[in-house]
Amino acid sequence: MSDPRDLIAQTIEDRKQALTHWARKNLQVLLPEAVVDRVVLEGLGSDAGFRHYYRAQSPLAGQPPFLAVDAPPETENTALFVKLARYLRHGGVNAPTVIAADAAQGFLLVEDFGDRLLRNELTQDTACTLYGEALMVLLRLQQAGDIPAELPHYDQAMLRRELTIFSEWFVEKLLGYSLSQAEQALLHGVFAQLETSALEQPQLLVHRDYHSRNLLLCDSGQIGVIDFQGAVHGPFAYDLVSLLRDCYIRWPQEDVKRWALSYGNMAMEVGVIPAVDEATYLRWFDWMGLQRHIKVLGIFARLHLRDGKDHYLADLPLVLRYTLEVARDYPQLSEFVEWFDQRLLPLIEQQSWYTDYRCAGDTIA
């Protein structure tokens, strides 16, 4: 019996060959003087979804490279991605220019922002400056204008679907723990509180993956924004907490709070959100992050178990730390914390990927 992973690999290779042919054909139209049959696509891997990225040198000497993207139409909406790229650029956000696109096949040629991920540039010395710049980009994103009507609404149903990924993939499939009816009721109550908090916030454009691995330092000096294909119309604090409580790097809580409050004051001053008291604002921020991190526990487990992307397991301890640190700050969530400590942590500590979550992310260059 054939291994399903072999079939997936063959499909990826077949699509790469088709993408190469498509790219050469489009480049011949765009650059009629170029020798396009020398264009070769070099794999850059995939993201947490189903998109695959390839870099190619320009067939004309002295011209910058470009990216070819395989975005399978069964799972990816290429037409919406193109529209979002134009929308963001019109709003002053440095999103990549789309050179060519074929929504039916799920193929794109886009501007190459390079490899300088914000994550790799962050140190104790650079953090304040780089986060300041990233927050200004976020402000432009949230001010970009009328949200495209095609964007889905981050409503209660979507929030709940995401949270149930935790129950199914992290609790049941990764840890092998069966939830009782009482435990399901407990989680339902916690999820309902997080959903209510999310939906009472101002609803704006949400990138939905705005963090240090999706922001790049471009040669122009600007921050470039990528991977916005999952954008939605949703809660104000989602992108802010995605950036400041990043699943891949952690900063001291006092810094995160200061940055979050500073951004909130700025957002209120320019009218992105109405005036709101500090306690409500911080609850929005904290509970939105808790919704995201509970979901991410499930997503990283699913990426490992279903998609064979095992490297995400190493990031689970930091996500656990965020989840429990925030939940412990709110008496309304004490029953959830007690359940997590008593029922899940003993199982988590037996996992091969586990390291002490209480110090996860403490080492910063």
Low-pLDDT segments: 1-7
DSSP strand content: 5-15%
Summed up, the domain count is 2
Sheet bearing the most strands, described? 5 strands, antiparallel
Q: Compute the number of helices.
A: 11
CATH level 4 superfamily of the largest domain:
Aminoglycoside phosphotransferase (APH), C-terminal lobe
Describe this structure in words.
- It is a single chain.
- The chain has 365 residues and is of the alpha+beta class.
- It has two domains: 4-111, Phosphorylase Kinase, domain 1 (2-Layer Sandwich), CATH 3.30.200.20; 118-359, Aminoglycoside phosphotransferase (APH), C-terminal lobe (Aminoglycoside 3'-phosphotransferase, Chain: A, domain 2, Alpha-Beta Complex).
- 49% of the residues lie in helices and 11% in strands.
- The protein has helices at residues 4-30, 78-90, 118-121, 127-142, 156-174, 181-199, 237-244, 253-269, 278-305, 316-328, 334-348; strands spanning 42-46, 52-56, 66-70, 98-102, 107-111, 203-206, 215-217, 223-225, 232-235.
- Strand 1 and strand 2 form a beta hairpin.
- The longest helix has 28 residues, at 278-305.
- It is globular.
- It starts with a helix and ends in a 17-residue tail after the last helix.
- 35% of the residues are buried.
- Residues 1-7 have low confidence and may be disordered.
Give the topology, please.
Layout: H1 4-30, E1 42-46, E2 52-56, E3 66-70, H2 78-90, E4 98-102, E5 107-111, H3 118-121, H4 127-142, H5 156-174, H6 181-199, E6 203-206, E7 215-217, E8 223-225, E9 232-235, H7 237-244, H8 253-269, H9 278-305, H10 316-328, H11 334-348
Helix pairs in contact: 4-7, 5-6, 5-9, 6-9, 7-9, 8-9, 9-10
